[in-house]
Design a protein that fits this description.
Layout (H helix, E strand, L loop, with lengths): L1 H28 L1 H6 L4 H8 L7 E2 L6 E7 L6 E4 L3 H8 L2 E2 L3 E2 L1 H5 L1 H4 L7 H10 L7 E4 L3 H11 L4 E6 L6 E7 L4 H4 L4 H13 L21 H10 L7 E3 L3 E3 L6 E3 L11 E3 H6 L3 H23 L27 E2 L15 H7 L5 E2 L2 H12 L4 E2 L4 E5 L5 E4 L4 E3 L4 H17 L13 E7 L8 E8 L6 E7 L11 H17 L4
Parallel strand pairs: 1-6
Antiparallel strand pairs: 1-2, 2-3, 4-5, 6-16, 7-8, 7-21, 9-12, 10-11, 13-14, 15-18, 16-17, 19-20, 20-21
Helix pairs in contact: 8-17, 11-13, 11-16, 13-14
Length: 508
């Protein structure tokens, strides 16, 4: 009898081990092969669309940027974007055919309920036979400010970025042109493909977010970096530079002139403060030559610019979840010249780089971060787009705290730069950004970007100057409605003014 029991026990043990081995093989060793089997694609898709995908909310915890709604058929849920165009650069899309972009991609593990922090909830749903639910993603976006940015930019091509200088929170991020993610997220493959084809055929590239995903010459807004480098290397606001009508560049017949061919105010010499206030190209070309490529590049990298194209360096600001899951840092390689043998300390290209042309590229996010570091006493914060994740019961399962990127300048330099930016708005090229009762600090930029093309108009700013609460960077492409006559002070500064005013006067 004991022998029979032992045989039965051994047989059951063997069968159990065989079962465990088979399950382990299927779930571990063969899992990838089975998942990649084309025959399973439809089943996987059906399973994915049976998940009640989580909601993406604005900073107020109420305004819905993206949510799931029930639908008919095997695909139980579909994605909806109540204000699709307004937030498309933030949410991205969730497409049956073309996958995911933006926050839909960057926070997918949370939205789909697959993140480790949601394991207990997912297991509970499985045991109780409830539909799987994703988590809610809470962003830093302020709806009223996002709407203000859209109104201020109007139909002009370009972008607006607004940050909290203390935390790096992205308060608003809007670009023109944009797109409606709803058709791309429909459950009609034909409509999805037609919409995709139309968007990709559009010469204005609406799927590319100009706030963070494209780079442009920053023009004179880059003088924020050049002036910071000068101050960090011994200059003061009263440091004097020769003030010629035209700056002849060494090793070449090329020259640099001020806007309109005018002299910079101040006589035969002028100060760094005067040159910055009036955005004098001649003087800042001299500053660049005095600094040389190494010091100028070091300052640019400290602010987060990369020195390779495409940007792959680890010493430059790299977009990472959850701060900003898309886009790229600025690009800066000073002193590069197309003729071999011209890589010298007084390379003429360094002077051109110092005024934001030549091999200098940025987007509104990158330039907002430069201003943010100045406004924050020299400390640059990582841009933050997501603050917390909530499970389906509303419990916070993960938070993302503000993160310091670095300290590109000293507090003393930040204070001097603030004084210079205030002078730009009070007495210089940025007077169109003045707000009664609020001291705005800013820098204009008018960037050439091709023979015969109207310039890009820039304005980078923060306010109030002595207690900064908001940073705003604006670019208007190809001169906006002024074309070749555009300047940053005329076109971009009034847009920044509107956004700042709404935020500081209680409209957001």
């Amino acid at each position: 009898m004991d022998r029979q029991i032992r045989r039965l026990g051994l047989g059951l043990t063997a069968l159990f081990l065989l079962l465990v081995g088979q399950v382990s093989y299927l779930q571990v060793f063969a899992a990838t092969r089975i998942a990649d089997d084309p025959a399973n694609a439809t089943r996987q898709l059906i399973a994915e669309y049976r998940v009640d995908r989580g909601t993406i909310l604005a900073a107020d915890g109420k305004t819905v940027l993206a949510a799931s709604r029930t639908s008919r058929g095997e695909l139980v849920y579909r994605r909806r974007y109540p204000d699709g165009r307004l937030y498309s650069g933030i949410t991205g899309f969730y497409s049956l055919v073309y996958g995911r972009t933006g926050l839909e991609a960057a926070t997918n593990d949370y939205l789909s309920g697959d993140a480790p922090e949601l394991a207990a909830q997912t297991f509970s749903d499985l045991l109780l036979g409830r539909p799987k639910k994703g988590a809610t993603v809470v962003t830093t976006i302020v709806p009223a400010l996002q709407q203000a940015a859209a109104r201020a930019l109007g139909g002009l091509p370009g972008a607006v970025v607004a940050l909290n200088p203390q935390t790096g929170d992205i308060l608003a991020m809007y670009a023109n042109p944009n797109y409606d993610p709803n058709p791309l997220s429909s459950q009609d493959p034909e409509l999805i493909r037609q919409t995709w084809a139309q968007l990709n055929a559009d010469p204005t590239y609406p799927l590319t977010d100009r706030a963070v995903a494209e780079l442009f010459p920053p023009g004179s807004t880059f003088k924020l970096v050049t002036a910071s480098a000068a101050l960090e290397n011994g200059d003061t606001l009263t440091t004097e530079y020769p003030n010629p009508h035209v700056l002849g560049l060494p090793l070449t017949n090329a020259t640099i002139q001020n806007f309109g061919g005018e002299y910079c105010p101040g006589g035969s010499t002028t100060t760094l403060l005067t040159a910055f206030t009036n955005s004098c190209n001649v003087i800042f070309g001299e500053v660049g030559l005095q600094l040389g490529p190494d010091k100028l590049a070091a300052q640019a990298r400290a602010f987060g610019f990369c020195a390779t194209d495409p940007p792959v360096q680890t010493d430059c600001l790299q977009p990472t979840l959850p701060v900003i899951p898309f886009g790229q840092s600025g690009f800066f390689e000073p002193g590069r010249f197309p003729v071999p043998g011209y890589f010298q300390q007084r390379d003429p290209a360094v002077a051109i780089s110092a005024i934001g042309q030549d091999n200098v590229l940025a987007n509104p996010m990158q330039m907002a971060l430069v201003a943010q570091a100045i406004a924050n006493g020299g400390v640059e914060m990582q841009p933050r787009l997501v603050t917390e994740i909530r499970d389906s019961a509303g419990r916070v399962v993960k938070t993302f705290d503000p993160q310091v990127y670095g300290s590109p300048i000293s507090a003393q330099t930040a204070a001097a730069m603030t004084q210079m930016m205030v002078s730009v708005v009070n007495n210089g090229t940025g007077t169109a950004a003045q707000i009664p009762g609020i001291q705005v600090a800013g820098k204009t930029g008018t960037a050439q970007h091709g023979k015969g093309a109207a310039p890009h108009a820039w304005f980078v700013s923060f306010a109030p100057a002595q207690d900064p609460q908001i940073v705003v960077a604006v670019i208007v492409l190809d001169g906006g409605n002024l074309g070749s006559e555009a300047t940053g002070g005329q076109v971009a500064a009034p847009i920044a003014k509107q956004v700042i005013e709404i935020y500081l006067k209680g409209g957001a």
